[in-house]
Amino acid sequence: MRFTTRMCTGNWSGFTNGIPGSEHAGRRSAAEARAAYYEYTRTHAKKEAGMATQPFLKIAFLLSIAGLILTPGAADDGRQPPPLSAVLSPIREAYGIPALGACVLKGGRVVAAEVVGIRKAGSSVSATNDDSFHLGSCTKAFTAVLIARLVEEGKLDWNLTLPELFPTLRTVMHPAYRRVTLTDLLTHRAGLPEQSWPADMSLADLHALSGTLPEQRLFFTRKMLAQKPAREPGSGYLYSNAGYVIAGAAAERVTGRPWERLMSAYVFTPLGMTSAGFGAMGTPGTIDQPWQHEPGPHGLIPIAPGPHADNPPVLGPAGTIHCSLADWASFVSVFLDGPARGLPLLSPSTIERLLTPPAGQEYAMGWIRVEREWGGGFVYTHAGSNTRNWAVVWMAPEKNFALMVTANRGGDDVYPALDQAAGEIIRLWLQ
After folding, report:
1. pTM of the full predicted structure?
2. CA 420 to CA 91: how far, in whole Å?
3. pLDDT over 90 at 342, yes or no
4. Would the N or C end of the chain have less CB density within 10 A of its end CB?
């Protein structure tokens, strides 16, 4: 199955003002949101046009709700905010999304979580609040946490270079990569290319790789590091899914365990994330979870769950996790008040490291840090899509507040729906 998409990359400062009109996020009509989005892509993403037929993990960080003007909402005057379904249902219908979900985390607990719609277009099977959604590149924050846990255990170090991480690859990697560190990989400063696979391979080639997943990721690492860097390593930001795959391969090499098992042992299990898994949601031949959807010439195309319904597993550390909204909230809570609540994951200093970007850029380690008045200072966000789902998270530590929005449909017109939902949730819930 071929994935077709575009990638929004580049200097994050160009996106800090968000989509035109985003100061009204949460109060725009669907038509206005779509128009604003397409104007954004027309004027700011010309580089993407030539990549429109390339299948790979989609990363679209449109850093909207930038100038969101907060008017007093229900939470500000003591009234109970309306059910999330009242926010989500009209947006879902306006944008033609089968299932749309959201979760609000405030004061250390989930205060609202709801999913509206159906699991599969054309079916009558309702989506439920416990259903899982694909997180796309929001997976990167999970991979960064896994690496951080291994650093705290002494199995890895932030300053280890690629030759130290992969001694057997020293002679085959391009000389410019020999000074790249683990930190560089996670902050997108390694100089690795935007394309998510080796230049002489295709997405189908990645699906066809044989061997164990650690063997596949080591092969992938060897191929990527043999190529010439896309920019001088360490000289600046260049978004690369490959960097996170290579970081995952480093974790596998020092532990002897696949990234998937490490993720389960170091992140999912300690947080009680029983719904979490990898790849497409659901069981083949059933509608026991939301199906993925991609737009077609005559409407949405439901994608049955199966091994080829998502990007190749070798790319897992860059973006293949799925889970329920409640379980995602458990993960996000680690960054809000995890140490205070005694969550058994990371020290406060490590959390600070993960959330602090290098000088001159906004991307930290799996999070983009920007300033927002509604968040009382720095807020953190990430979005992701495998072209068949969408997910976005916003986190405001100064307010001990976070929200997540998910959809089981791909397409460029879906992000404005998530943005609209996020803006309305902020208006209603954030005091």
Report:
1. 0.86
2. 8
3. no
4. C
